[in-house]
Design goal:
Layout (H helix, E strand, L loop, with lengths): L1 H13 L1 H21 L14 H12 L7 E10 L7 H15 L4 E4 L2 H4 L8 E11 L5 H14 L4 E6 L10 H20 L2 H29 L5 H29 L4 H28 L7 H32 L28 H11 L1 H16 L7 E2 L11 H13 L7 E7 L5 H13 L4 E4 L3 E2 L5 E8 L6 H11 L8 E6 L1 H35 L3 H26 L4 H4 L7 E2 L2 H30 L3 H28 L7 H33 L8 H6 L43
Helix pairs in contact: 1-2, 1-10, 1-11, 2-8, 2-11, 4-6, 7-8, 7-9, 7-21, 8-9, 8-11, 9-10, 9-11, 9-21, 10-11, 10-17, 10-20, 12-21, 13-18, 13-22, 17-18, 17-20, 18-20, 18-22, 20-21, 20-22, 21-22
Length: 749
């Protein structure tokens, strides 16, 4: 692998203008095709295999007029003093209903005084607005018109609020979050490289990769039926890994220049060594994302495969376009500054007393006390992970929004006036079985449900044209996200609950949320086993070791568990909720564990490969374990730190969103990457390798014969290219470790 990438880097450097023209041409072609492509179709939110999905499929077949994914809004009117049925208040409500009926894309509006949608005390009423399009097809004009009508209806003594999917804001802060991430990345890159041109290359190539990927996804949206949100994950990850991968190659190029290599050989060696790590790190990310289809949720599958393609594109850019741009930049990219020695001799032969850098001091501290550091770090992560044992999954609704939003205020008004379960009604679809009487079955089902504990009301059955299927609305007595409502859904679905003469399917947003949470919970362990298993086999080939991949997998599990524990503590238990803007603690978004496993695993393996490959490289040159750990860490710690800071900043930027879902994702990914990069990879990894010694790089002979030699550390490149003409860099590079002291711990004293 290293030899092939060495040749690739040299070719790209020599033919730099050709390579740049080809990538620029690809970007232009993708942009032109993307601009001509049609709009992405609505997202497929179907959840195959769930009872709620079966009910929706039956509704689509028997009740075509009912749109399960249609856009709806519920406008709530409350009299501040007196009743909403008073003449003045009633006139204001009627005027608002007429205005809503004439709004764009509105198909039907119910008048609360005609449908009886007035609370028992007469203070609150609501109008149901149904649009003729799916929620993804609702235009901004229609949303703005709805909000304008609501604002105009507000008058002294009358409170008007609205909720529903028609008024759900689009993910706020998406572009601003990316801007914040880019700004932080730019600052970190300038600090790392100390030069604008070297810092600009990773940003430029990352944006190029994301641009090409986004255009390609748009082109493929219609033929492959990719939903409108497919590119969200690919943009976020493509930007992050694109910067990271370019950062590692450019950093290694500057190190090779500092060793005295010519620019062409420095670029070739950078691609052959750091590029090899990039390829295998990218493969672990691709494995984690491409395995998302095992969950069985189409939206997740599309997002995972699109993001995997974007990461693969970032790898290609890192090993081809980066060396070409390095060649064009020429002398404007300077060699890295010489590293401070951790011990050596000056020109007179006396011992130097130069102070080592922070990375060297940190790794020396760890390798002197590896067992204590390991126990302390693992204990801290396990403690933080403890709340994860109480994880409750759900999908956030209007109840999780800040009280400053109209959706939350509408939710509270309806819950206070009509009962807590009114915001989460269940839809019961009754179909007669064995040629029975559907009408009798529906009436019997309604009676049974009214007599079920936890049910507040049941509406009369509504039949289709053929009178063979009926729909009932069941309003629970408890809130949608409560455990009592979940138990009620299971009770209504229990075998025998529907009787012998009917088949009853329970749907509705609440039931679908329960099904999604259960499906994701059941898929979590198989998904982890598949991803970790495949990556474990890949890392055996990368490091030619059994214990290093095992350590990597165990460290990842600690990181994810700690990240989930922090999410539960903040978003479910409400700890530090004011600090992070959590208005109402509640169940954690059901997609979060799978999402966190997929994304964090790929990024964790990035840092593992970049960090440990340098340690493996040092060990191959001079097989003294602790010295190899110190040398590899000293060479890679600064770059890995910069990459982790960039990644955490990108994810943390999403915490500024007003949407609890986006806020949860941003916090969860940021805290998990923080734990993994700085606690696991840069603290526990050197401690474990120092404890294992030579055993860390052990591979059984029988397995050694079967595992391919991929040569990530660039052993096959030694002696290749132009020999360094300048002085060797200060520190512990593979070229000067042969003259190191015989005792591995002597360098640490």
């Amino acid at each position: 692998m290293a030899a092939f990438l060495f040749k690739t880097g040299k070719f790209s450097f020599r033919w730099r203008w050709l390579v740049c023209v080809l990538w620029a041409g690809l970007f232009v072609v993708a942009g032109v095709l993307g601009s001509r492509a049609g709009a992405a179709p609505p997202n497929d939110f179907s959840i195959p295999g769930t009872e709620a999905q079966q009910a929706y499929d039956l509704l689509e077949e028997r009740f075509p007029e009912i749109k399960a994914d249609g856009a709806t809004a519920r406008v709530v009117f409350k009299a501040d003093d007196g009743k909403v049925t008073a003449p003045d208040q009633k006139r204001a409500v009627d005027d608002a209903v007429r205005a809503l009926g004439g709004a764009p894309q509105v198909e039907r509006v119910t008048n609360p005084f005609e449908t009886g949608s007035v609370s028992k005390d007469g203070t609150t009423a609501y109008a149901q607005v149904s649009y003729g399009v799916a929620v993804n097809e609702l235009t901004d004009t229609s949303r703005e018109s709805l909000m304008d009508i609501v604002e105009e209806a507000r008058a002294p003594g009358l409170t008007v609020e609205t909720g529903g999917n028609a008024v759900s804001e689009k993910a706020a802060g998406g572009h601003s979050s990316e801007a914040v991430g880019l700004a932080v990345a730019a600052v970190v890159l300038v600090v790392t490289f100390g030069a604008l041109i070297a810092a600009g290359l990773p940003l430029l190539t990352a944006l190029l990769g994301v641009g090409v990927a986004t255009c390609v996804i748009k082109v493929l949206s219609e033929p492959l039926d990719l939903g409108g949100t497919t590119s969200v994950l690919s943009s976020m990850l493509g930007l992050a890994v694109g910067i990271d991968y370019a950062l590692f190659v450019v950093s290694r190029y500057r190190d090779e220049l500092a060793r005295g290599r010519s620019r062409e050989d420095a670029a070739a060696h950078a691609v052959g060594t750091a590029g090899s790590a990039v390829v295998f790190a990218g493969l672990t990310v691709v494995i984690a994302l491409a395995a998302l289809p095992v969950v069985g949720i189409p939206v997740l599958s599309q997002m995972g495969l699109a993001a995997a393609g974007t990461v693969a594109l970032a790898v290609l850019i890192a090993v081809t376009l980066i060396p070409a741009l390095l060649g064009i930049a020429g002398g404007r990219i300077k060699p890295a500054r010489p590293r401070r020695r951790m011990g050596g001799r000056n020109g007179a032969g006396s011992e130097t007393a130069s102070r080592p850098g922070p990375g060297a001091r940190w790794v020396r501290f760890i390798t002197r006390r590896p067992l204590a550091v390991l126990l302390l770090g693992a204990t801290a992560l396990i403690t933080v992970a403890t709340p994860a044992a109480s994880l409750e999954l759900g999908l956030p609704g209007d109840e999780s929004k800040p009280t400053s939003t109209t959706q939350r205020r509408a939710y509270d008004l309806l819950a206070d006036s009509f009962g807590p379960g009114f915001n989460g009604p269940l839809t019961a679809v009754v179909r007669a079985g064995g040629g029975g009487d559907a009408q009798a079955a529906a009436r019997d089902t309604a009676v049974r449900m009214r007599n079920t504990d936890g049910v507040a009301t049941v509406t009369p059955p509504r039949f289709n044209e053929n009178k063979d299927t009926a729909v009932l609305t069941v309003v629970p007595a408890t809130a949608p996200g409560s455990e009592e409502t979940t138990d009620l859904v299971h009770t209504l679905r229990a075998p025998g609950a529907e009787g012998d003469d009917a088949e009853v399917l329970i749907a509705g947003t609440t039931a679908m949320n329960i099904d999604v949470s259960q499906k994701l919970a059941e898929a979590l362990l198989p998904y982890i086993a598949l991803v970790v298993g495949l990556a474990f086999l890949l890392l055996i080939a990368v490091f030619r070791s059994i214990l290093v991949p095992l350590k990597a997998a165990l460290g990842f599990l600690l990181s994810v568990a700690a990240g989930l524990g922090a999410v539960v503590a903040v978003f479910q238990w409400g700890w530090l909720s004011a600090l992070f803007g959590v208005s109402v603690p509640g169940p954690v978004m059901s997609i979060m564990p799978i999402f966190m496993v997929g994304v964090v695993f790929g990024l964790a393996m990035d840092y593992e490969v970049f960090l440990v490959s340098r340690m493996r490289e040092a060990y191959v040159a001079d097989p003294r374990p602790v010295r190899a750990v110190v040398s590899g860490f000293d060479h890679s710690a600064r770059v890995v730190t910069a990459a982790a800071v960039i990644m955490v900043s990108v994810f943390a930027g999403f915490m500024g969103s007003s949407e609890q879902m986006v806020k949860t994702i941003g916090f969860g990914l940021a805290i998990a990457v923080l734990f993994d990069a700085f606690v696991v990879r840069m603290t526990l990894v050197p401690a474990v390798l120092a404890l294992l010694g030579h055993r860390a790089w052990w591979l059984p002979r029988w397995l050694d014969r079967w595992v391919p030699h991929v040569d990530v550390e660039g052993e096959g490149l030694r002696g290749g290219g132009t020999a360094p003409t300048g002085p060797a860099p200060a520190g512990l590079s593979p070229s000067d470790t042969i003259t190191a002291p015989a005792e591995p711990y002597e360098v640490l004293r």
